[in-house]
Design brief:
The protein is an all-alpha fold. About 65% of the residues lie in helices and about 5% in strands. The protein is elongated and about 90 Å long.
Length: about 475
């Protein structure tokens, strides 16, 4: 029999067999054999097909039969890689592995792991299990958890095309980092069912730390939090707080700080609140720039009993924070919130460190802001704290503004401050910064103290006329 007759008979045999076989299988087989492979699949179409396959609960036997019917031009591939044979005979195998087939290996439903194709000794943990690190490399703590049971259908009907190991299928986490795909995922989360939300959650939970600092991924994470169950919120909290250095990096990033701030709004149970506030307390000193909004959010949202440790960290490091460019602004925001516990505790520390804060380029703004709040008791305490140092402060570039602020307060008697300035009046009359303080004191003091000032000015007038700063006082007072 020649080769032409063999080809003719084989073609007729395939036509007859195609009539008897399932049309769906024939179409799938023909598409896989005749269609050229596409270089880059559409992520939206793959997402639609992946989620629909999960919902339909694709039968494992159908997948295996379809895979087994494929022909291989090189028969040696089965010998070189025994896992290809195991894919077809796994259900009848006598080994202890009992589960489904993935694109990267075999699923062991008894132990909850994927066995790697290249080495059965290295497990690949499923997305449907609890993790031991942010990257999903930890051991499975509880295989009978409610979260695993809720996703058992997904695990039993695992589709190879939805596996992260399949190079032809982009993971949900990578889709979330793409601008157009991120918008599509947000729409699916908003309009989809709970099953859709669970599938997307499984796809991003192991990459949650990277997505929270991604310009597009953070929108998916924040939208996902709106649909997450309390158990899923707990998993997010566990993932981002497991490693403190990673949590600090997230909160120090402007995009990551917004993501964590959104997460704070969805905390409900006390365990979640305590876990997050403790992590923020440990890194509070590093949050003076981007992460200061997180500390402020904690003070506004949670009860003082939950934020006491955080408040103590801020109060004990008040001097360090107030002398920082961003920290001084953060303290001013803390003083402006409606929580009296926070305000009183920080006020005590500011008064105790007032002298050092007044001479600092940033700390002086904290003292001035405390005066602007208009609390007479706080103002009197500050005046007493600085008494005996006003002449020294008046000669300082930054503290001189604080002294002028004290003198311009209408509800206090400035006599004690002016008398303190008179002890070093000869120096202040020709000082680059003290001359402004003397000018302010002249207009706010009483007549008795003004006469004393006039005698000192008359005595030093020849020297003041030869000094640029002393001459400013004479011009201002028309002397």
């Amino acid at each position: 029999m020649d080769s032409s007759s063999i080809n003719t008979n084989s073609k007729s045999y395939r036509r007859e067999t195609a009539k008897e076989e399932n049309p769906t299988l024939v179409n799938q087989r023909g598409a896989s054999q005749l269609q050229p492979p596409q270089s880059q699949p559409n992520p939206h179409r793959l997402l639609d097909e992946g989620i629909s396959r999960i919902y339909s609960g694709a039968d494992l036997q159908t997948l295996e039969s379809s895979f087994g019917s494929l022909s291989f031009t090189n028969s040696s591939a089965h010998q070189q890689n025994p896992f290809l044979n195991n894919r077809r005979t796994n259900r009848s195998s006598s080994s202890s592995i009992n589960g489904c087939v993935g694109s990267d290996g075999l699923w062991d439903s008894n132990n909850g792991v994927f066995l790697n194709r290249n080495s059965q000794d290295i497990p690949y943990y499923s997305r449907g299990h609890r993790w031991g690190s942010n990257y999903g490399l930890g051991s499975v703590r509880n295989n009978n958890s409610s979260w695993r049971r809720s996703n058992q259908g997904f695990l039993n009907n695992h589709d190879p095309s939805m596996s992260f190991g399949n190079p032809r299928m982009r993971s949900i986490a990578s889709l979330a980092q793409d601008q157009s795909s991120s918008a599509e995922l947000q729409r699916r989360i908003s309009q989809g069912s709970k099953e859709t939300v669970d599938v997307i959650f499984e796809g991003v939970i192991f990459h949650i730390c990277d997505l929270m600092v991604d310009p597009y991924g953070q929108h998916v994470v924040r939208k996902l939090m709106e649909r997450c169950s309390p158990e899923q919120i707990t998993q997010i909290v566990d993932a981002i707080t497991q490693f403190q250095f990673r949590f600090v990096n997230i909160c120090s990033d402007p995009v990551g700080a917004l993501s964590v701030k959104s997460l704070l709004r969805f905390l409900r149970c006390e365990e979640q609140i305590v876990r997050m506030v403790r992590a923020i307390s440990l890194g509070a000193l590093a949050f003076t720039s981007s992460g200061n909004a997180l500390v402020l959010q904690c003070f506004k949202q949670f009860h003082p009993s939950h934020t006491w440790d955080l408040l103590e960290v801020i109060a004990q490091n008040c001097l360090q924070i107030a002398t920082d460019e961003y920290g001084c602004r953060m303290l001013q925001q803390f003083l402006d919130i409606g929580c009296n516990v926070v305000k009183q505790r920080l006020t005590q520390e500011i008064i105790a460190n007032a002298l050092r804060l007044c001479v600092d380029s940033f700390g002086n703004y904290v003292v001035q802001y405390l005066l602007e709040l208009g609390d007479p008791n706080v103002t009197i305490c500050l005046i007493r704290q600085l008494l005996g140092n006003y002449a020294y402060l008046a000669r300082n570039k930054f503290a001189s503004h604080v002294v002028q602020k004290f003198l311009n307060i209408g509800y206090i008697d400035p006599s004690s401050i002016v008398r303190d300035l008179l002890r070093d009046i000869d120096t202040l009359l020709c000082d680059p910064f003290g001359n402004y303080v003397i000018q302010t004191a002249w207009f706010v003091c009483k007549e008795e103290l003004r006469m004393i000032l006039m005698r000192h000015i008359d005595r030093n007038k020849p020297l003041m006329r030869c000094n640029m700063y002393g001459n400013k006082i004479l011009q201002r007072l028309n002397l």
